[in-house]
Amino acid sequence: MSNDQELVLEQTPCLASESNIHASQLHILPQGNHLLSLMTILRDSKTSVATFADVTERVGDQLINAALDLLPIQETNVLSPTGVEYQGAREAVEVCGVSILRAGASLENSMRRGYTGPLSFGKILVQRDESTSLPTLYYSKFPVGISSKVVLILEPMLATGGSAGAAIDTLKQNGVPEENIIFVNILASRSGIKTLFDRFPSIRLVTAAVDEELTPKYHISPGLGDFGDRFYGTHA
């Protein structure tokens, strides 16, 4: 059994029982062979920028699909080409994807491909002081009426939870209820998950993997490095 598979089997029940975390609010993607192989490519320090970006979108598609499954649908009947009525459904909830810049923008294409209902986007710029790990909000821009939308926060990495918390605070200040916020994430630390649910017990979180440790500099370990640098090719 792989390390990632062990994380899901052993950590998920433990995480869901701690603090204010409920199993219905924490969603870790099923650790199948395909996802594990994609995550291995992302974690490999030798992976090229082009491959890293491509694999990010493949994982992003799985994450967005899992997040969208949490939303209600509207019953809709259509007439099939055979002339038979089909009792189906449509995605009708107004959704806003809010990227925490700059890395969060890497998940926007997956969101555009995935959601067939009314969709808009917002941006938040939060920068973390590398010595203190404390976040500072520099910029935010949201569509009109965001308080009535379901918001998917797009952020590949959840380390300490500081930047994520600042983003959620900003959304709440703009009238978005906690229960309408879904945090979509590629890799989370155990402590970051706990921090978010301690502060915001009504949010939901969808992630592809959970790592146990943080380094002394508050980076996820084993992690996958600086996501933005690897996605955009700006690392040294």
From TrEMBL:
- What InterPro entries does UniProt report for this protein, alphabetically? PRTase-like, PRTase_dom
EC numbers listed for it are 2.4.2.9
Under the heading Pfam families, the entry gives: UPRTase (PF14681)
Per UniProt, which keywords does this protein have? Allosteric enzyme, Glycosyltransferase, GTP-binding, Nucleotide-binding, Transferase
- EC main class here is transferase
GO BP terms in the entry? pyrimidine-containing compound salvage
| UniProt record similarity statement | Belongs to the UPRTase family.
Q: Which cofactor does it need?
A: Mg(2+)
Q: Name one GO molecular function term.
A: uracil phosphoribosyltransferase activity
The protein, known as: uracil phosphoribosyltransferase
Q: Which NCBIfam families match?
A: PRK00129.1
Specify the superkingdom.
Eukaryota
**Which residues belong to any copy of the Phosphoribosyltransferase domain?**
31-234
Q: Which organism is it from?
A: Penicillium angulare
From the UniProt record, give the pathway where this protein acts: Pyrimidine metabolism; UMP biosynthesis via salvage pathway; UMP from uracil: step 1/1
